[in-house]
Amino acid sequence: xxxxxxxxxxxxxxxxxxxxxxxxxxxxxxxxxxxxxxxxxxxxxxxxxxxxxxxxxxxxxxxxxxxxxxxxxxxxxxxxxxxxxxxxxxxxxxxxxxxxxxxxxxxxxxxxxxxxxxxxxxxxxxxxxxxxxxxxxxxxxxxxxxxxxxxxxxxxxxxxxxxxxxxxxxxxxxxxxxxxxxxxxxxxxxxxxxxxxxxxxxxxxxxxxxxxxxxxxxxxxxxxxxxxxxxxxxxxxxxxxxxxxxxxxxxxxxxxxxxx
Length: 260
Ligand code: NAD
Hints:
Elements: H1 3-16, E1 20-24, H2 43-46, H3 54-59, H4 61-80, H5 85-95, E2 99-104, H6 110-114, E3 121-123, E4 130-133, E5 139-141, H7 142-150, E6 165-167, H8 178-190, E7 193-197, H9 209-215, E8 219-223, E9 236-238, H10 242-259
Parallel strand pairs: 1-2, 1-7, 2-3, 7-8, 8-9
Antiparallel strand pairs: 4-5, 4-6
Bound molecules: nicotinamide-adenine-dinucleotide.
Protein backbone atom coordinates (compact mmCIF):
# COMPACT_ATOMS: atom_id res chain seq x y z
CA UNK A 1 0.00 0.00 0.00
CA UNK A 2 1.26 3.50 -0.84
CA UNK A 3 2.11 5.64 2.23
CA UNK A 4 -0.54 8.22 1.26
CA UNK A 5 -3.22 5.56 1.12
CA UNK A 6 -2.08 4.12 4.46
CA UNK A 7 -2.19 7.55 6.10
CA UNK A 8 -5.73 8.16 4.87
CA UNK A 9 -6.81 4.77 6.11
CA UNK A 10 -5.43 5.43 9.61
CA UNK A 11 -7.13 8.85 9.58
CA UNK A 12 -10.46 7.21 8.70
CA UNK A 13 -10.04 4.69 11.52
CA UNK A 14 -9.32 7.55 13.92
CA UNK A 15 -12.38 9.49 12.83
CA UNK A 16 -14.54 6.38 13.29
CA UNK A 17 -13.29 5.84 16.83
CA UNK A 18 -13.14 7.64 20.14
CA UNK A 19 -11.05 4.89 21.69
CA UNK A 20 -7.68 5.47 20.12
CA UNK A 21 -4.69 4.53 22.24
CA UNK A 22 -1.20 5.58 21.20
CA UNK A 23 1.75 3.61 22.51
CA UNK A 24 5.03 5.48 22.27
CA UNK A 25 8.70 4.59 22.62
CA UNK A 26 12.00 6.37 22.34
CA UNK A 27 11.48 6.83 18.56
CA UNK A 28 8.77 9.42 19.18
CA UNK A 29 11.34 11.69 20.82
CA UNK A 30 14.35 11.30 18.51
CA UNK A 31 13.03 14.22 16.43
CA UNK A 32 13.24 16.24 19.67
CA UNK A 33 16.96 15.47 19.83
CA UNK A 34 16.80 12.64 22.41
CA UNK A 35 18.58 9.60 20.98
CA UNK A 36 16.89 6.23 21.36
CA UNK A 37 18.84 3.52 23.13
CA UNK A 38 19.20 0.90 20.44
CA UNK A 39 19.87 2.78 17.20
CA UNK A 40 23.55 3.43 16.31
CA UNK A 41 24.86 6.29 18.46
CA UNK A 42 22.20 5.60 21.13
CA UNK A 43 23.02 5.38 24.84
CA UNK A 44 23.66 1.64 24.70
CA UNK A 45 26.49 2.29 22.24
CA UNK A 46 28.31 4.24 24.95
CA UNK A 47 27.14 2.53 28.13
CA UNK A 48 26.81 -1.17 28.88
CA UNK A 49 23.20 -2.00 29.81
CA UNK A 50 24.50 -4.74 32.14
CA UNK A 51 25.88 -1.99 34.40
CA UNK A 52 22.38 -0.65 34.95
CA UNK A 53 20.58 -3.50 36.65
CA UNK A 54 18.65 -2.40 39.72
CA UNK A 55 20.31 -4.98 41.98
CA UNK A 56 23.74 -3.65 40.98
CA UNK A 57 22.61 -0.10 41.68
CA UNK A 58 21.51 -1.14 45.18
CA UNK A 59 24.68 -3.01 46.02
CA UNK A 60 27.62 -1.33 44.31
CA UNK A 61 28.96 2.20 44.72
CA UNK A 62 30.68 1.87 41.36
CA UNK A 63 27.31 1.12 39.72
CA UNK A 64 25.68 4.07 41.58
CA UNK A 65 28.35 6.44 40.28
CA UNK A 66 28.02 5.17 36.73
CA UNK A 67 24.25 5.40 36.96
CA UNK A 68 24.34 9.05 37.97
CA UNK A 69 26.95 9.82 35.30
CA UNK A 70 24.64 8.39 32.65
CA UNK A 71 21.59 10.12 34.11
CA UNK A 72 23.42 13.45 34.30
CA UNK A 73 24.21 13.16 30.60
CA UNK A 74 20.61 12.20 29.87
CA UNK A 75 19.20 15.01 32.02
CA UNK A 76 21.16 17.65 30.12
CA UNK A 77 19.74 16.31 26.86
CA UNK A 78 16.21 16.18 28.27
CA UNK A 79 16.38 19.71 29.61
CA UNK A 80 17.37 21.03 26.20
CA UNK A 81 14.68 19.16 24.29
CA UNK A 82 11.22 20.33 23.26
CA UNK A 83 8.17 18.38 22.09
CA UNK A 84 8.03 17.73 18.34
CA UNK A 85 5.08 17.44 15.89
CA UNK A 86 4.46 13.82 16.98
CA UNK A 87 3.81 14.92 20.58
CA UNK A 88 1.62 17.81 19.41
CA UNK A 89 -0.36 15.52 17.09
CA UNK A 90 -1.27 13.38 20.11
CA UNK A 91 -2.54 16.50 21.90
CA UNK A 92 -4.63 17.50 18.87
CA UNK A 93 -6.17 14.02 18.67
CA UNK A 94 -7.06 14.32 22.34
CA UNK A 95 -8.68 17.73 21.78
CA UNK A 96 -10.65 16.23 18.89
CA UNK A 97 -12.10 13.72 21.37
CA UNK A 98 -10.45 10.74 19.67
CA UNK A 99 -7.53 9.89 21.92
CA UNK A 100 -8.24 7.92 25.06
CA UNK A 101 -4.67 7.83 26.33
CA UNK A 102 -1.01 7.68 25.50
CA UNK A 103 0.85 4.75 27.01
CA UNK A 104 4.51 5.64 26.94
CA UNK A 105 7.77 3.91 27.65
CA UNK A 106 9.44 7.29 27.56
CA UNK A 107 10.83 8.99 30.60
CA UNK A 108 11.22 12.45 29.07
CA UNK A 109 7.94 14.15 30.07
CA UNK A 110 7.49 15.49 26.51
CA UNK A 111 3.88 14.30 26.09
CA UNK A 112 2.91 16.37 29.15
CA UNK A 113 5.07 19.29 28.05
CA UNK A 114 3.23 19.30 24.71
CA UNK A 115 -0.02 19.78 26.63
CA UNK A 116 -1.49 16.31 27.12
CA UNK A 117 -3.18 16.22 30.54
CA UNK A 118 -1.19 14.26 33.12
CA UNK A 119 -4.02 11.74 33.62
CA UNK A 120 -3.99 10.85 29.91
CA UNK A 121 -0.31 9.84 29.96
CA UNK A 122 0.47 6.42 31.40
CA UNK A 123 4.20 6.20 32.06
CA UNK A 124 5.32 2.58 32.18
CA UNK A 125 8.98 3.32 32.85
CA UNK A 126 8.66 6.33 35.11
CA UNK A 127 9.90 9.87 34.60
CA UNK A 128 13.52 11.07 34.60
CA UNK A 129 12.51 14.53 35.79
CA UNK A 130 11.44 13.25 39.20
CA UNK A 131 13.77 11.89 41.86
CA UNK A 132 12.83 9.98 44.99
CA UNK A 133 14.56 8.39 47.96
CA UNK A 134 14.50 4.60 47.68
CA UNK A 135 14.25 4.29 51.48
CA UNK A 136 11.73 6.90 52.67
CA UNK A 137 10.13 7.96 49.38
CA UNK A 138 10.82 11.68 49.79
CA UNK A 139 10.64 13.48 46.46
CA UNK A 140 13.38 15.78 45.19
CA UNK A 141 13.57 18.27 42.35
CA UNK A 142 15.71 16.78 39.58
CA UNK A 143 17.27 20.19 38.96
CA UNK A 144 18.38 20.54 42.59
CA UNK A 145 19.87 17.05 42.62
CA UNK A 146 21.74 17.86 39.41
CA UNK A 147 23.20 20.97 41.05
CA UNK A 148 24.54 18.80 43.85
CA UNK A 149 26.14 16.45 41.31
CA UNK A 150 27.60 19.32 39.31
CA UNK A 151 29.08 20.61 42.59
CA UNK A 152 30.95 17.32 43.02
CA UNK A 153 28.59 14.87 44.77
CA UNK A 154 28.96 11.53 43.02
CA UNK A 155 26.18 9.54 44.72
CA UNK A 156 23.42 11.81 46.03
CA UNK A 157 21.69 10.65 49.22
CA UNK A 158 18.51 11.65 51.01
CA UNK A 159 18.85 14.65 53.33
CA UNK A 160 16.17 13.10 55.57
CA UNK A 161 17.23 9.48 56.02
CA UNK A 162 20.50 9.00 54.09
CA UNK A 163 18.84 6.58 51.63
CA UNK A 164 19.86 6.34 47.99
CA UNK A 165 18.29 8.81 45.61
CA UNK A 166 17.22 7.67 42.16
CA UNK A 167 15.17 9.18 39.34
CA UNK A 168 11.74 7.52 39.31
CA UNK A 169 12.65 5.63 36.13
CA UNK A 170 12.43 1.84 36.05
CA UNK A 171 15.80 0.12 35.74
CA UNK A 172 16.35 -3.36 34.36
CA UNK A 173 15.32 -5.80 37.08
CA UNK A 174 13.23 -3.23 38.96
CA UNK A 175 9.54 -3.93 39.64
CA UNK A 176 7.18 -2.32 37.14
CA UNK A 177 4.76 0.29 38.54
CA UNK A 178 1.70 -1.83 39.27
CA UNK A 179 -1.00 0.83 38.94
CA UNK A 180 0.37 2.08 35.59
CA UNK A 181 0.61 -1.48 34.27
CA UNK A 182 -2.96 -2.18 35.31
CA UNK A 183 -4.26 1.02 33.70
CA UNK A 184 -2.24 0.46 30.53
CA UNK A 185 -3.51 -3.08 30.10
CA UNK A 186 -7.11 -1.92 30.64
CA UNK A 187 -6.65 0.87 28.07
CA UNK A 188 -5.07 -1.54 25.57
CA UNK A 189 -7.89 -4.06 25.96
CA UNK A 190 -10.50 -1.32 25.59
CA UNK A 191 -8.95 0.29 22.49
CA UNK A 192 -10.63 0.25 19.10
CA UNK A 193 -7.45 1.46 17.44
CA UNK A 194 -4.00 0.96 18.95
CA UNK A 195 -1.15 2.88 17.32
CA UNK A 196 2.46 2.04 18.15
CA UNK A 197 4.83 4.91 17.40
CA UNK A 198 8.61 4.74 17.62
CA UNK A 199 9.14 1.57 19.60
CA UNK A 200 11.27 -1.46 18.82
CA UNK A 201 8.74 -3.49 20.85
CA UNK A 202 11.47 -5.60 22.39
CA UNK A 203 11.30 -4.30 25.97
CA UNK A 204 8.91 -6.43 28.04
CA UNK A 205 6.45 -6.34 29.72
CA UNK A 206 5.64 -2.97 28.07
CA UNK A 207 5.81 -4.56 24.62
CA UNK A 208 2.89 -6.85 25.49
CA UNK A 209 0.44 -3.93 25.27
CA UNK A 210 -0.09 -4.15 21.48
CA UNK A 211 -0.83 -7.85 21.90
CA UNK A 212 -3.45 -7.19 24.58
CA UNK A 213 -5.09 -4.69 22.24
CA UNK A 214 -5.02 -7.04 19.27
CA UNK A 215 -6.29 -9.96 21.37
CA UNK A 216 -9.26 -7.82 22.46
CA UNK A 217 -10.12 -6.97 18.86
CA UNK A 218 -8.45 -3.59 18.26
CA UNK A 219 -6.94 -2.61 14.95
CA UNK A 220 -3.18 -2.38 15.27
CA UNK A 221 -1.06 0.22 13.48
CA UNK A 222 2.73 0.38 13.78
CA UNK A 223 4.67 3.50 12.80
CA UNK A 224 8.38 2.81 13.20
CA UNK A 225 11.59 3.29 11.24
CA UNK A 226 12.83 -0.25 11.88
CA UNK A 227 11.05 -3.59 11.90
CA UNK A 228 9.50 -4.92 15.12
CA UNK A 229 8.65 -8.47 16.24
CA UNK A 230 4.93 -7.63 15.84
CA UNK A 231 4.96 -6.33 12.28
CA UNK A 232 3.06 -9.40 11.07
CA UNK A 233 0.28 -8.67 13.54
CA UNK A 234 -0.25 -5.12 12.34
CA UNK A 235 -3.30 -4.21 10.26
CA UNK A 236 -1.17 -1.41 8.89
CA UNK A 237 2.53 -0.73 9.00
CA UNK A 238 4.30 2.51 8.12
CA UNK A 239 8.08 2.74 8.01
CA UNK A 240 8.31 6.46 8.53
CA UNK A 241 9.26 9.21 10.92
CA UNK A 242 6.90 9.67 13.85
CA UNK A 243 6.57 13.46 13.53
CA UNK A 244 5.98 13.43 9.80
CA UNK A 245 3.58 10.49 9.76
CA UNK A 246 1.46 11.65 12.72
CA UNK A 247 1.23 15.19 11.33
CA UNK A 248 -0.02 13.82 8.01
CA UNK A 249 -2.48 11.50 9.76
CA UNK A 250 -3.79 14.41 11.82
CA UNK A 251 -4.16 16.61 8.74
CA UNK A 252 -6.03 13.90 6.91
CA UNK A 253 -8.33 13.24 9.91
CA UNK A 254 -9.18 16.96 10.10
CA UNK A 255 -9.95 17.02 6.36
CA UNK A 256 -12.31 14.06 6.71
CA UNK A 257 -14.05 15.71 9.67
CA UNK A 258 -14.55 19.03 7.86
CA UNK A 259 -15.95 17.24 4.79
CA UNK A 260 -18.51 15.33 6.88
P1 NAD B 1 14.09 1.57 21.36
O1 NAD B 1 15.30 2.43 21.43
O2 NAD B 1 14.23 0.12 21.65
O3 NAD B 1 13.42 1.67 19.92
C1 NAD B 1 13.14 2.89 19.31
C2 NAD B 1 12.57 2.58 17.94
O4 NAD B 1 12.18 3.80 17.35
C3 NAD B 1 13.59 1.93 17.00
O5 NAD B 1 13.02 0.76 16.44
C4 NAD B 1 13.84 3.00 15.92
O6 NAD B 1 13.94 2.44 14.63
C5 NAD B 1 12.57 3.82 16.00
N1 NAD B 1 12.73 5.24 15.67
C6 NAD B 1 13.76 6.06 15.95
N2 NAD B 1 13.49 7.32 15.54
C7 NAD B 1 12.26 7.26 14.98
C8 NAD B 1 11.41 8.24 14.38
N3 NAD B 1 11.79 9.52 14.25
N4 NAD B 1 10.20 7.84 13.94
C9 NAD B 1 9.79 6.54 14.03
N5 NAD B 1 10.56 5.57 14.58
C10 NAD B 1 11.77 5.94 15.07
O7 NAD B 1 13.03 2.28 22.26
P2 NAD B 1 11.82 1.69 23.09
O8 NAD B 1 11.09 0.69 22.29
O9 NAD B 1 11.12 2.88 23.63
O10 NAD B 1 12.51 0.93 24.32
C11 NAD B 1 13.65 1.44 24.93
C12 NAD B 1 13.57 1.85 26.37
O11 NAD B 1 14.39 2.98 26.48
C13 NAD B 1 12.22 2.29 26.83
O12 NAD B 1 11.98 1.59 27.97
C14 NAD B 1 12.36 3.76 27.22
O13 NAD B 1 11.99 3.90 28.57
C15 NAD B 1 13.81 4.07 27.18
N6 NAD B 1 14.18 5.31 26.48
C16 NAD B 1 13.43 6.44 26.61
C17 NAD B 1 13.81 7.60 25.97
C18 NAD B 1 12.95 8.82 26.12
O14 NAD B 1 12.29 8.97 27.13
N7 NAD B 1 12.93 9.70 25.13
C19 NAD B 1 14.95 7.63 25.19
C20 NAD B 1 15.70 6.46 25.08
C21 NAD B 1 15.29 5.31 25.74
